[in-house]
Protein: adenosine deaminase
Amino acid sequence: MYQTPAFNKPKVELHVHLDGAIKPETILYYGKKRGIPLPADTVEELQNIIGMDKPLALTEFLAKFDYYMPAIAGCREAIKRIAYEFVQMKAKEGVVYVEVRYSPHLLANSKVKPIAWNQPEPGDILPTDWSPEVVELCKKYRHNVVAIDLAGDETIEGSSLFEGHLKAYKEAVRSGVHRTVHAGEVGSAEDVRQAVDRLKTERVGHGYHTLEDEALYKRLLQENMHFEVCPWSSYLTGAWKPETEHAVIR
Structure:
């Protein structure tokens, strides 16, 4: 009997970043409309610059956002459009449920400190640490927001445990806001342990390096910890090397 191939069946996607899923056409449109220089004038040229199909370091991967985010951030019209187009793209891919994440501060890029993309818009400056504010937004829109997520720079030791992050996750636990933490992608298994023990995360983004600590792996397996795994992106950032890994998270 004929069976539909797995990739044609309805799909669920639990780990996707909105600012990493913007159509090049939209970037070019708002760059031109807002007078913001871009490194290319055509879709093909821009895709070659901001896209990648060979592994780079995580920092090199993240640097690609610097090319195009100034054309989007700080523009309400652009943000609404990329969100709408994202839903369209997922529908065409057959995705029936998706959890997309974004940083409201990075997309606003005004009246916040630091201003990541250097938009020249004046306004009242909010506190440098954004995490407590994100929790308050989650509480305000708890009927629309799935969870708070921490996606810090794992190349900075202990960055997930900065005071503002600890404060935010403590409030998230107290107020019943669901919690995810990126950990163990390029960092160590200890980063995963800290995310679970100190930040009280319910999910781990990536978490490949958990495999380096057998006791931790067995513990989280027993606790039914949920790992949001994206092998392709992590292969491109060098966080996961299929030729050397000998186990997978089940």
In short: Residues 11-102 form one domain. The chain has a mean pLDDT of 85. The chain has two domains: 11-102, 126-243. DSSP finds eleven helices and six strands in the chain.
